[in-house]
């Protein structure tokens, strides 16, 4: 097979061969890092560092997993070390960020500028659910967040996640169960789409702001999550969200530019970023 030949060349020190293999999963790896770090620049930096470190350590690759899993292990370790220096986001991060934006004219101007500079930009309900999934994921302990992203959004098996995290099967299954439970509980109490008492109204506010011609009620009726909220338990609603988010590339969707500035506002609210970013 061509891939086996290319891998053999890479193992012999051919950086072009390694780059060819790396490109095969680079987009997915960058998307994963972006969801994990909630910052495009950080994701790009760690992606770059991962490529360099993986090529440098390629002689240690013994084929006990796929090359993709092995590279994800390196990237995850680098991201984990970075995230340990950050604090976990709080469940009310969106409200804190909104308050910050309302009090800061420059931030409001940046959001408007992003919208006006991207002619085909959209920020529909699904785009916000994607952003919200990332924000709530950052409420989790790092290992839970990693396990949930790898399994529920990027379709890694439990066995592969064991390799990436260096954990036993039992521990990984616990991380998944616990992570999903925490996320489902936070969604259940905050999401205004499925709970009329939910405090997060960004879906409607942003969709109305950036898509003024779109009928809100029509969007709500068509949204599977809203329809499902009447008959599903919160754990099932979690998987509805995960499946919706899985189909979105957060770096290339029509709402990507706005999502990036909103995540930046959240980072500001958590004290992680500079207003000059």
Provide an overview of this structure.
There is one protein chain. With 277 residues, the chain is mainly alpha-helical. It folds into two domains: 85 residues, RNA polymerase sigma factor, region 2, helix turn helix motif (Rna Polymerase Sigma Factor, Chain: A, Orthogonal Bundle), CATH 1.10.1740.10; 189 residues, no CATH class. The radius of gyration is 20 Å and the shape is globular.
Structure keywords:
0% strand; sigma factor activity; 70% helix; transcription; Rna Polymerase Sigma Factor, Chain: A; RNA_pol_sigma_r2; 15 helices; mainly alpha; 277 residues
Give the number of DSSP strands.
0
On the 0 to 100 scale, the average pLDDT is 86
* Biggest sheet record: none
Poorly predicted runs of 5 or more residues: none
Strand portion: under 5%
Query: Could you say how many structural domains there are in total?
Result: 2
Number of helices: 15
Query: Structural class from helices and strands?
Result: mainly alpha
Overall radius of gyration: 20 Å
The helix-strand sequence is HHHHHHHHHHHHHHH
- Report helical residue fraction: over 70%
Shape category: globular
The end-to-end distance, rounded to whole angstroms, is 45 Å
């Amino acid at each position: 097979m061509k891939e086996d030949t290319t891998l053999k060349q890479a193992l012999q020190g051919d950086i072009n061969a390694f780059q060819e293999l790396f490109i095969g999963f680079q987009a997915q790896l960058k998307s994963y890092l972006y969801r994990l770090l909630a910052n495009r620049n950080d994701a790009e930096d760690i992606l770059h560092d991962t490529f360099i470190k993986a090529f440098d350590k390629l002689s240690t690759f013994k084929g006990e997993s796929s090359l993709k899993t092995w590279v994800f292990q390196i990237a995850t370790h680098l991201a984990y070390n970075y995230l340990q220096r950050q604090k976990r986001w709080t469940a009310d991060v969106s409200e804190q960020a909104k308050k910050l934006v309302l009090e800061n004219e420059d931030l409001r101007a940046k959001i408007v500028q992003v919208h006006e500079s991207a002619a085909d930009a959209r920020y529909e309900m699904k785009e916000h659910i994607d952003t919200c999934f990332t924000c709530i994921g950052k409420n989790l302990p790092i290992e839970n967040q990693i396990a949930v992203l790898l399994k529920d959004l990027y379709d890694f098996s439990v066995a592969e996640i064991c390799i990436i995290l260096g954990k036993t099967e039992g521990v990984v299954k616990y991380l998944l169960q616990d992570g999903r439970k925490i996320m489902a509980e936070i969604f259940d109490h905050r999401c205004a789409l499925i709970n009329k008492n939910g405090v997060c109204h960004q879906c409607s506010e942003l969709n109305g702001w950036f898509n003024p011609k779109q009928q809100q009620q029509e969007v709500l009726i068509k949204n599977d999550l809203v329809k499902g909220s009447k008959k599903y338990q919160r754990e099932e609603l979690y998987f509805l969200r995960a499946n919706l988010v899985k189909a979105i590339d957060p770096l290339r969707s029509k709402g990507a530019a706005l999502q990036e500035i909103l995540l930046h506002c959240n980072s500001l609210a958590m004290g992680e970023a500079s207003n000059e970013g």
